[in-house]
Amino acid sequence: MRTDVAGELDTKEGLPAPPPLTGRKRWRWVPGFLLLAAFFVFVLTRPSEERKLGQLFLHAQPAWLLVALVLQAGTYLSTAFLWKRVLMRTGIHTPVLALARLALMKLAFDQLVPSGGIGGSLVVARGLRKRGASSGAAAASVLVATLSLYAAQAIALGASMLFLWSRHQVTDLMRWLVTAFAIVLAIVPVALLLLTRHRSRPPGPWTRRVPGLEALLRALSEVPPGLLRNPRLLAEATLCTLTVFILDGATLVATLRAIGEPLALEGALVSYLLASVAETVSILPGGVGTFEPAAVGMLSVFGVPVEAALAGVLLLRGFTLWLPLPAGLFLLRWNGTPKQQPG
């Protein structure tokens, strides 16, 4: 019943429900889990004098794990503050905690439904509409967040590569990953800005191939132009996104500290960012099977033993993916997002 009501609300608002959480997509996780299992076998069977993985988990320090939990809570608050700043420009005042719940829902939806982030954007837009924002203001929040994400990634990755170059640690694989990601960084923001500039032109038939894309583009056509031409707002949004990256890097520092492995923030941040690039390029749900080996490989560049690196990364993934995922899924169901279909 909740799903039907939500669908009616979306029709009135011009924002459809995001693609359903269909069980048919579960097989997409299989390649990632197979890759992760193969990496586990590689690490656990290699000769090493370091402490075993199980011992590292057993002796993890709860205080540092609590620090990691607090840092991750900060990432959702930073994202919520970004949306709040955009909404305030349109005269809408929404509590940060309510927006932080939307951030959790977006994470869960983007991980469960491979739609290039479009489904998660629709979740956010619908949530903002239900909190009093116009279609244009809701779409503006999504668009500004997306543009700031790409701007922050460009800044952070550029700084990371300069840092590695200064230490003579740039490899051919790193260059390939960053180059592939740079192409996406260049194409997506330009495409979004062009689509919002040609407001009178209806979305083409090709947009119907991606669930929710046509409706999202129509909503983007209602974005107030002044919001996208406000340098201060875009700078604030980019700073919020950079803060999320720093908090994620600090979370990795905390999980490594929990198992007794110290690492400077810059090393953890560079490792996290390069692993995130590998996750994005792989297109596997949640980056499972690609993020973990990439992060462990980067940490080994900074002198972290393989077993300790794997333990720290798995703890990190617990805080960034596996703990928030069920919470976000619960919020999605509670808010009337279409349920899974058998199959």
Task: Describe the protein's architecture and organization.
With 343 residues, this protein is an all-alpha fold. The protein has one domain. The chain is built from 15 helices and no strands. α4 crosses α7, α7 crosses α11 and α12 packs antiparallel against α13. The protein is globular and about 60 Å long.
Properties at a glance:
disordered N terminus; disordered C terminus; mainly alpha; 0% strand; 343 residues
Task: Write the topology of this structure.
Blueprint: H1 2-13, H2 30-45, H3 53-58, H4 62-89, H5 96-112, H6 118-130, H7 135-166, H8 172-197, H9 213-220, H10 225-228, H11 231-258, H12 265-282, H13 291-301, H14 306-322, H15 324-334
Helix pairs in contact: 4-5, 4-7, 4-11, 5-6, 5-15, 6-7, 7-8, 7-11, 7-12, 8-12, 11-12, 11-14, 12-13, 13-14
Structural category is mainly alpha
Separation of the first and last Cα atoms: 22 Å
Give me the number of helical elements.
15
Strand segment tally: 0
Run of helices and strands = HHHHHHHHHHHHHHH
C-alpha geometry: globular
Radius of gyration: 20 Å
Work out the helicity level: over 70%
What number is the mean pLDDT?
Answer: 81
Number of structurally distinct domains: 1
The largest pleated sheet is described as: none
Strand composition percent: under 5%
Protein name: Integral membrane protein
Keywords: Cell membrane, Membrane, Transmembrane, Transmembrane helix
Organism: Stigmatella aurantiaca (strain DW4/3-1)
Transmembrane segments: 27-44, 64-83, 137-164, 176-195, 237-259, 308-332
